[in-house]
Amino acid sequence: MYFNKKRADKLMDQFDIDLLIASTPENVTYISDTVSWAPKVYSYSVDMFATYFRDNNLNSSLIVPSQEMTYVSASNTWINDFYTYGGKSALIQESEQVIESAEENAYLNLQNSDDKRFPTAVEALIASIKNNTTKKLRVAIDEDKMTHKSTLKLQEELDNCELIPSSDLLRLIRMVKTNDEISAMKAAADLNETACTKACNEIKIGMKELDIAEIYAQEVGKGLGKWLWFHFGSGRRSVGIFPPTEKKIQVGEMWKFDAGLSLNNYQADTGWGGVIGQPNAQQNMIWEATLSGYDAAMSVIKEGVRPSEIQKAMLKGTQDGGLTDHSGTFAGHAIGLEMRELPYVLGNKKMVNSLYLPEDTDIPLPENTVLCIENPCQIFGVGGTQIEQTIIVKKNGYELLTKQNRKLWIIE
User: In terms of Cα–Cα distance, which of 29, 20, 37, 266 is closest to 167?
Assistant: First the structure.
C-alpha cells in the first residue's frame, strides 16, 4: 500500500482531523493505490476524489469519473466503496454473457451502480460522506485541485463541518515513504537509469544533442514511462540545464544532462556528465570539485539532518575541492509522487505560513524520506558536469534507491 496509514492516523490525531479528502492525481493515487490518467489529461474538466476517515469504522471512498472506471477496475485499490458521476459509458450488456474476472466484476459494478451515480463529482463526494456519517467533522481538504465552487458546495451541504485547506498535511504524511512506495520509486529510477545509460553509450563525436535525447525518449517509452525532460548541453552549453539542439558534439568538449520521467505516477530524476576525449586539467578540476562537494553532502545525511546542513556541506566540499568561487545554494530535493516534495529544495531555509508545518522549510528529515542529491558545477565558457543520485534517508546514514555508479564519463 502506498498510503502510510500509521503516519496519517498519528498526524490526524495531532491536528484533530476527522476526514481527509484528496483531489490531486498525486494524492488520489497515494490514498487509493490507483493510477489515474483522466484527471491529468483533462485537468480542468475531470475530477477524482479519495476520502479517508480517521475512524476506521467508516468507509473510505473513491469518486470515479466515467473515464477512470476501467483503470480503477484494473487496479489493486484497497478501497471498496465507489461513487461515480456524469453519464454512463456506452456498453451493451447481453444477459448470456458470464463475468470471467474480478476486473470485469469491478467494472460492471461501477457501470451499473445507479444508486451511487451523481450529476457532478462534488455531489458524489458529498453523498459518500453523508452515507457514512452526519456527525460534525473537521475535514482536511486537498485544496490544490478543489475548485472554489466545489468548496462552497461542500460547505453548504456539510454545514455542521469545518473545512480546512490541508494540502500541506497530505504532503507532510507523504514525506515518509512506505515499502510499496519505495518499490514503485525504484522501478521508476531503474527505468530512468537504463534510458540514460543507453543514451550516453551512444554518444559519438559529431552526434547532435537532439539525437541523444531521442534515444533517451525511446528507451523511456519502451518501459512504458513518460519522459518529462531531457536537458542536454555540450561544450559551452554544458553550463546550466539547456535544452538539446542541433548542435554537434565536438572533441574536447564537456557534456552534461539531467533527465526526469514518470512511471505509474511516481517520479524519477537523475543526471551526470562527461568529456569527449581525455579531460584536460581544468576539466578534471571541475569534476574533482563536483565529486568532493557531493561526497561531503552525502557524509552528513542521516535521520534528523536538516536540508541546510546538506547544502552547506556540499558547498564547502565543492569549494575545498578546487572551485573556490562556487556559490551553489542547491543540493537537491525530495521526490516521490511529485518531483519536488516536502521540504522541496535542499538549501537555504525559507519561511512558510502553514497550519501543519514548522515556521520554515529547514525540516529535520525523517527516516525513509527519499532525496535526489545533486551537485551541478560549471564555469562559463568552459563547461560543467554534475552528479545526481536518489537515496533513502536512514537512521544512521542512507541507502541508494537503486544502483547508480557516478564517474566522469569519457567518450574516446
Answer: 20
- Domain map (residue ranges) of the chain: 5-174, 179-411
- Entry pTM: 0.95
User: CA–CA separation, 305 vs 325, rounded Å?
Assistant: 26
Provide the mean pLDDT of the chain.
96
User: Residue 338: is its pLDDT beyond 90?
Assistant: yes
CATH topology of domain 5-174: Creatine Amidinohydrolase; Chain A, domain 1 (3.40.350)
- The predicted-structure confidence for 11-45, as pLDDT tens digits, reads as follows 999 999 999 999 999 999 999 999 989 998 998 89
Helix segments in 176-208, DSSP class H: 179-201
**Whether the predicted pLDDT of 49 surpasses 90:** yes
Residue-wise pLDDT tens digits, 356-392 = 999 999 999 999 999 999 999 999 999 999 999 999 9
Q: Would you identify the CATH topology of the domain 179-411? A: Creatine Amidinohydrolase (3.90.230)
Query: Are the C-beta atoms of residues 38 and 46 closer than 8 Å to each other?
Result: yes
Residue with C-alpha cell 470485469?
Answer: 104
Strand positions, DSSP E, 360-408? 370-379, 383-394, 397-400
For residue 270, give Cα distances in angstroms to 6, 93, 215, 267. 31, 48, 16, 10
Please check whether residue 207 is in contact with residue 248, taking contact to mean a CB–CB distance below 8 angstroms: yes
The answer to whether 158 and 129 have CB atoms below 8 angstroms apart is yes
